[in-house]
Amino acid sequence: MRIALREMRRSKLRFALLGGAVGLLVLLLLFFQAVAGTLVTALTGAVDEARADVLVYDDRARGNPVTSVLPLDVVDAVAAVEGVEEAAGIALTVTPVTADGEERGAVLIGFDPGAPGTPATLEQGRLPEADDEALSSGSGFEPGFPLGAVVTVGDAEIEIVGTAVDAAYNATPTLYVTHDAFAAFVRDRTGGQAPVTLSAVAVEAAGGSDPTALAERISSEVDGVEALDKAAAVAALPGIDTIDRSFGILYVLLFLVVTIVTGVFFLILTVQKRQALVLLRAVGAERGDVVRLVLFQVVLVVGIGVLVGTGLAGGLLAASRDVFGSALDAGTTIRSAAAILALALLAALGAVRRVLAIDPVEATSPGGLS
Amino acid sequence: MVGGALVLLVVLLVVLGGFLDGLTLSQTGAYRAQGERLWVLSQDSELQLPRSRLSAEVVEQVTAVDGVSETGGIAAVSTTTSLPGSDELADVVVYGYELASDVLPTPPAAGSAVVDRRLATLADVREGDTLAVGPDATPLRVAGFVEDTTQSVPTLWVEMGTWRELATVANPAGALPDGAVQALVVTPAAETDPEDLAARIDAATGATSTVDLDSLIDGQPSVAQQASTFQGIISVTFVVTLLVVALFFALLTLERTPLYAVLKALGGRSSDLVRGLTAQALGISAGALVVGVALALAAVALLPSDLPVRVTGGRLAIIALGTLATAVVGALFTLRRILRIDPADAIG
């Protein structure tokens, strides 16, 4: 290993450039993963963190609460299905609101406090108990309203009595209010012209009921609805599939670039120092010694690149917390680092093959070391 | 081998640029369909159409402002539509509108819709077909097609009366009172300064934000955030390209040091060597660009059509110039080593 380290000290620029390239690629990869994770959480929080095993939508809504319109009496129909412990309606709309003299966009959700559909991540305060109270939640991209704030929604003033974590809808600050408050807002906004409807029904399964089977039963027994277990409901939300596939393509490209750059570098290096390697073998070094030399350098350079890239990604995410609200996830970081190291070692196989093909007798042939 | 790594980096740059432009273009098609008109939205909407409401009184006030040639209401609702001959549903945004433009024809008759061509690429939709739109499967006859009006999903364009009926069913909580719209598009009168007109409209109503098309698009939070994120990532990828080229030219220079020493001993100047190195960097990166762009275009063509990737000529030009420039800069990282080569090294 001393030889490997001495070679690296003598060729600092080359190894530093490779480490730098790997570091930046790791930075890109971890940054993408963190932002994608925050984006998905921000888009799905209201559904993912809702106290519910099954979500029921209009059967023409494609699992999208925004395009789902259900009559009020569907709650009773759903509650009557065997295996349903409790069911409660959720209504959703977007509206501008004013808080602290500042206008902001918000999602208004009408719900039954304490019933299915209630965010399970209450952080501060309590659930609303009156029509002029609300529970607030934000996302990594935009914070919610603080506890105690008074928000003007339409003509009504609503006090924030509780906050929840990661329960925003569509990355937008979200206010959870009583159904009566929601209905009053809609009546004021539409001049009384619009019927009161729901966007979804949240269902808690009875003990022992399989949510997937329950969802199928609800879909078949209640007219005009499509029920999804929570995982399917989250996956069906608009944009989630596109985000997963788009970022997946970028991850693959980044892993490929790291692999090829590392593999090509060590292959060129091995070709360049072939004479030295022949000499090493000629003076008694075993094949394994020479291979270990190459692999040691791969692990060291890529490992340092991974550490530098991780540090840079953490710093960049911390500096941009106001914009993205993202942070590195330890598990994801470790898995990605391990994958990069494994791919780098795989890419070094080309160099290893060349090393294994070295015959020490070449050192004795005329011009063998020239 | 250097070229191979560069090819992959070019593919990554083209795909990143494709996502950036695809996301931006696919989210703003409906806005760009109105041409260069001014947009009037409610002041508290933060330029977001779903949050904007203009009452009938505000519409009258805007129309009465001196310098306004014509105004047209715009409103949008997200819903789904059945596809002809299929049980499948597709997400769509239905726009009610009043003014024709270079992209949009005169609003079709009640019960008909002009359809975004993108819907025809997702399913076999033809003129004359009937779509079942919204929770109540309201029938809309396809009156024709328009290009590039996607708003993340395909759009349907209908006259305002049809829109109001549909929106009452598809989004009851967002229904508009009689005479109200979500936004107005305004055509300035001849020789009227649009910026000046925008200010006068906002002063007259006291409750609106009037902007041009570019400001409307830039004001969409998703567009601004995507642009800054992807541009930052593309910049970092250019730096990676620079490092990779520098790395490989460092390796090559080391191997060629004796050759460079001989060339200098024969009278070659350092500037000749630098020119040669630059030419090699340009040649390798140009080759990598050609192959990389071809591979990237092939890869993009194979991607599912619903992924927001669009490769534009302008973006390719920026990537090409950037790659050539970073390749040259990367290759010149070894300039110091080349300048220090002593011709005497050629002897012995």
Q: What is the number of helices of chain B?
A: 10
Strand order of the largest sheet of chain A: 2-3-8-5-7-6
Chain-averaged pLDDT of chain B: 88
Which two chains share the most extensive interface?
A-B, 65 and 65 residues
Mean pLDDT of chain A: 87
Strand order within the widest beta sheet of chain B: 5-6-4-7-3-2-8-1-9
Can you give me a brief rundown of this structure?
The complex is a heterodimer of chains A (370) and B (348). Chain A is an alpha+beta fold and 370 residues long.
Q: What does this molecule look like?
A:
The complex is a heterodimer of chains A (370) and B (348). By secondary structure, chain A is of the alpha+beta class. In chain A, 51% of the residues lie in helices and 19% in strands. Chain A folds into 2 domains: 2-42 and 240-364, no CATH class; 49-236, no CATH class. In chain A, α1 (2-10) packs across α9, α2 runs antiparallel to α7 and α7 (240-272) runs parallel beside α11 (330-347). Chain A starts with a helix and ends in a 14-residue tail after the last helix. Chain B is of the alpha+beta class and 348 residues long. Chain B has 2 domains: 2-25 and 222-346, no CATH class; 37-211, no CATH class. In chain B, α7 (221-265) packs parallel to α9 and α8 (270-302) packs antiparallel against α9. Chain B is elongated and about 90 Å long. Classes of the chains: A alpha+beta (370), B alpha+beta (348). At the A-B interface, α2, β2, β3, α4 and α7 of A face α1, β2, α4 and α7 of B.
